[in-house]
Amino acid sequence: MLKKHNSIEPDSWEFLRKHTAARIALGHAGVSLPTKELLAFRLAHAQARDAVYSELNKEKISTELSEIGFDYLFVKSSSVSRDEYLKNPNSGKKLDQEFLQKLKQFPSSYDLCFIIGDGLSAVAVNEHSVAVINLLSLKLKKQNWSIAPIIVSEQTRVALTDEIGNLLNANIVVMLIGERPGLSSPDSMGAYITYHPKPGLTDERRNCVSNIRPDGLSYSFAAEKLFYLLTEMNAKKISGVQLKDRQEGLFLG
Amino acid sequence: MYKHTVGSRTYSFQSLKELLAKATPLRSGDQLAGLAAESYEERVVAQMKLAELPLKTFLEDHLIPYEKDEVTRLIVDNHDAKNFQYISHFTVGDFRNWLLSEEADSTLLSKIKFSITPEMAAAVSKIMSLQDLILVASKCKVITSFRTTIGLPGRFSTRLQPNHPTDDLKGIAASLLDGLMYGSGDAVIGVNPATDNVHATIKIVELIDSVRQKYSIPIQSCVLSHISTTIESIKLGAPVDLVFQSIGGSEALNKSFGINLSLLKEGHQAALQLNRGTTGKNLMYFETGQGSGLSANAHHGIDQQTLETRAYAVARVFDPLLVNTVVGFIGPEYLYNGKQIIRAGLEDHFCGKLLGLPMGCDVCYTNHAEADQDDMDNLLTLLAAAGCNFIMGVPGADDIMLNYQSTSFHDALYVRKLFGLKPAPEFEEWLLKIGIVDANMNLLGKTEGAQKLLNYVKKA
To answer: Judged by CB atoms within 8 Å, which residues 304-343 of B form the interface with A?
Structure first.
């Protein structure tokens, strides 16, 4: 009969974990991963996969937006399925015809338009988008910014900003979108800001605030950072690489 | 114009690049570019037509004109016409048969490497099965050296990749130590910096160099910054071992990376002059990957796998220590699922080896690809069978800076155990001396020597 019940060899350098979130000092069974670590990894990947295929929770988002006093409109990109969205990113960069016509009829001319897009993780925006819009819009309203009804968009890539922003004649668009999920961050949200959006812009014309989630960049820091960028953008009339982030120390708090 | 008839139906292919694209096993990137075959039948018909094509065709019909592209000029000007006599009478189909024959042994394959152009390698790979790609690659021996010797028979190396999202030196050191304790790092200790600047690059290079010197570890280091950043670091006196750069198969693609051949030459020369290698002088580290051409809109209507092989023509004139195809990093719009990633990894490894390169592979995927760890286990095992020189070693296979999954230190040990492979001899000797492993490569981990290494980190 075997004497050992536990075949795992732990690592004596677990104390190093405080320096990094990397999966170090996992120990080993033979030369392989211990069962616990194998399954922990598999769970993290499963959560990331679920996030990629998650869908916008329209009921939750619409209720929350109403509660903070915003109108909203649901739209779709030309992607007919998640499969097409993944294989052909361009399909997520333009509006479906029906919604294109709808937006053409929409009242236009705003200082700012928010778009909530599912991107590669709808759970991220289901959880975080309205909270950030709330904090940020409170700051903006004090400065008398006019804000369009919130556009909530399915099968969305960042560049859909340009068509929507152009149709609504928005001075600046902030798109809150689910980022490609990391193994330990299936709900990470990004905010992409574009000044004077119009079709054909490339990514160097946008500014990005990334990793918005409770375990990453908090809602209040994100709102503060976005407010700073929007104010700068509005004053200097540019966005993207030309707009340097000179706000120091914000992330250190 | 190329025509081929099957039954009552005649297929025509307007150009050599169309024929190559249509003959390529299915992948999403070629579909996205509008270059893929439109049916299963058309794909195989294209392969049949391609198999009939004389190898000489590729010397005359350039996929990007000679006058317009410095990579084409490099391929044409470096062609070894003398040794081409061994294969000049072959069609692509004959070439496959010959590669599989006993006559094509390691010595001869190495001798004729510069008589094979990237397009010839790509063409033959398209009609080969996975077992062909594995069998022929396993005959191609490419051995390189700086402070360790990589690619020797019976050896299997790893790049230790201790990335950290903010380049925190303690965070990098923690993952670095974890890797060393698992016997990883004999190909290179290579860090992808979170920010590409001279200051960060120098700090990380100095960190790795201090650990190397303090514990006399036979390793080489690399910070994977842009080559211009590395050149600047060398000018400022940084202890740079290897020079890194991402490269591609067309002049336009390389331009999108901010490089050209002359800049690569400058970086190569700058590092050679430091004369830091002890067992050899191979010091370039290149990364490639199918799909980068389309992604940068610089593919010239060439399918992604053929364009990838043209990057190898760039790599091989610089006698690199390591060439790494980062196969699944680019995402599902280029390689959709595990099946496509696995085939691409084996194609890249085969083509690179046939062209004379020390090929390794970042066996990897992103979370929006239709792939998982089982697919990576497949590719990893197949590459080891094919004689791949090295893979990545990432703590727990989870890169927390680049947000993708690669291979772990445990994965490398699995391969070594399964195939009876050992690390590079210089590194193996160090591992034994310090007591991290025993002679059978079992992990010891708690011996006195290894504890010394740990104590160093505790104090730092």
So the answer is: 332-333, 336
